[in-house]
Amino acid sequence: MDNKKKNIIIAITIASILVVVGGIVCLRVFSGFDAEKYVSAVLDQNMKGKVKTVASMTKNLDEKEAKQQYEDLVSGFVTDMLARGLTLNEEQKEQCVKVAKKIFAGMKYEVQKSEKIGKDQYCVTVKYKKSDVVKKLQALAEQENVNINAKVENGEYRGTAEEITNQMQAEFAANLPKMMEEAYKTMEFGKTETMELTVKKGDNGLYKFDASEFIIKIMDLGEKQD
Questions:
Q1: Which tens digit of pLDDT belongs to each residue from 157-171?
Q2: What is residue 2's predicted lDDT score, i.e. its pLDDT?
Q3: What is the overall mean pLDDT for the chain?
Q4: What are the strands, taking DSSP E only, across 4-143?
Q5: Measured between alpha carbons, how far is 192 from 190 in angstroms, rounded to an integer?
Q6: How far apart are CA 161 and CA 147, in angstroms?
Q7: Which residue has the higher pLDDT, 117 or 224?
């Protein structure tokens, strides 16, 4: 039997956030553009699943489509980052998505004001508090790896090296919803900070800003590299 230790990684990284969020949110808005309201509406759509305002402001997005974008974001957060490399059954995925929605909705932020800084370009100020939920989850995952590897050392898994690896991954997947719930319940927030988001109108007539920058900051994932 192969007793070599293996670690299952919670892969919440800036690169993976960019893949899931898609980086840029682009919307074609009705006349009388309000940058502050627009940013607030998009953040509330992404973080809380509130879609009425963002749908009411835009020509190219209705409530059903806006809700689907939110569902895809949360689902991608689970499958493309937290459970990357794992196979979740439907019940496990449903449980993880449910907790992920609570994590997203628990983020603390408030859109403050907007300032026009050029033709069809605005600077929107957002106050927020960093959450340590990702760090808490990664610490729980590390401990889970220790526990699983101890079982490997004790011969509690049986079969070939591949079969043992599959058993390890299955146990990690089964415990992932509980780890997420624990990280959510124990997450703490830092001091109030300020970020400035640039909203501008492109040649295609769509207003856009980098929503991934907000998620990277509020979940304390480090600095985005240009």
A1: 899 988 988 899 999
A2: 47
A3: 85
A4: 24-27, 108-118, 121-131
A5: 7
A6: 18
A7: 117
| Beta bridge mates, 113 | 125
pTM: 0.86
Long-range CB contact pairs, 85-94, < 8 A, 24+: 85/8, 85/9, 85/11, 85/169, 86/8, 86/169, 86/172, 86/173, 86/176, 87/169, 87/170, 87/173, 88/173, 88/176, 89/173, 92/173, 92/174, 92/176, 92/177
Q: Which tokens go with 83?
A: 């459970």
Tokens of 94: 């449903």
| Cβ–Cβ under 8 Å, residues 218 and 224 | no
> Which pLDDT tens digit goes with each residue over 71-120?
998 998 898 888 888 889 999 999 999 999 999 999 999 999 999 999 88
The identity of residue 99, as a single letter, is V
Environment class of 47 (CB within 10 Å of its CB; exposed 0-12, middle 13-18, buried 19+):
buried
Strand-strand pairing, 121-131 and 207-210? unpaired
- Torsions phi, psi for 112 (to 5 deg): -95, -60
- Write out the two tokens for 118: 């050029």
Spans of all domains in the chain:
14-218
Residue type, 121: Q
For 7-21, the pLDDT digits (tens) are 665 555 444 544 455
Identify whether the C-beta of residue 110 lies closer than 8 Å to the C-beta of residue 127: yes
- Determine contact, residues 65/59, Cβ cutoff 8 Å: no
